[in-house]
Design goal:
This protein is mainly alpha-helical. The chain folds into four domains: about 60 residues, no CATH class; about 30 residues, no CATH class; about 120 residues, Annexin V, domain 1 (Orthogonal Bundle), CATH 1.10.220; about 80 residues, Orthogonal Bundle (Annexin V, domain 1). It is built from 19 helices and no strands. The longest helix has 19 residues.
Length: about 350
Amino acid sequence: MSTFAFPAMASAAPRSGRERVAILLLALGDKLGPQLLQKFDSAEVKAIMETATSISRVEKQDLDLLVDDFAAQFAKALGLGTDFEAVKSLVERAFSPGELSKMLGNQIMQAGEPVWKKFEPGMENALVPYLLDEHPQTIAFVLSRLDSEFAARCLSILPGDFRVTVSRRLLKVQPVHEEVESIVEVALERDLLSKADAALEAEGRGRLAAMLNKIERDMSGEIIAGVAAWKPDEAAKLKRLIFSFEDIGALSQESRLALFDKLQPDQIVLALKGMDAAVKEVALSSLGARARRMVEAELASDKGVRSKDGDAARSAIVARVLEMAQRGELELPTADEPSG
């Protein structure tokens, strides 16, 4: 008689379908029980009454199991979704976006979404530096799963040659095993998406700045210009974290003196070899008289050719500048406009 096929209950005395209906009607109470009973026809009511005469005592455990079974069958029969998306849809119909953000925050509302849909504009500054330690094939797979516009921004931030390598692999990305994709999703969720928006934005900006400080000035300028094209305010913030050896002249005299006081003369000599005369003069003017004479003597034979040792020395000095700036020992120059 019942529309639902109840599974056998885990009880010492399994109940028949009619017994379960009778028990559920009693459990609904004096108000809902009679209302529901009115929906049955006379034959069904008669069957329920006949069954009621043989119902033994119902323990709480039996009733709990019966209610759980009924709920599961009811949801299945109606196609009722009980997953996160179904609840999310219900909540979104009940409250405005502003109310939801205030009550729950973005993270809860995004909890049931696939990882790939959680990346929003601005997060590329966190994602790209994070991916740079991975194999190009892994990066290509991640980009292939992201929104195309967001993936394009990520691709534009990658260094030139590496960007080409990843682009080639994007042309032939193959499906991966479900378990492998799950591992990638868990790592992205844990390392990037589980953090608050503000913290993620700041960390991402720092990651990208660290990357740009290690590549050629022309390439870093190209990437900053790309960021500025779609988000000028983010590019301006990013620019304030970028520093190259050539920017030493933009430091205040006080900051330059603090910096060069921590450098060794031989490191300064290596860094200045192959540099323009203007950069050399700025550095020399930041040295004491004795140190300046020593450095000038070493630079007298400079033929204007850069070397790997010189690049390493300049990178080390830039790293020292950034460390000192982080500790508040000097101030980085500010720029109103991102350089292109």
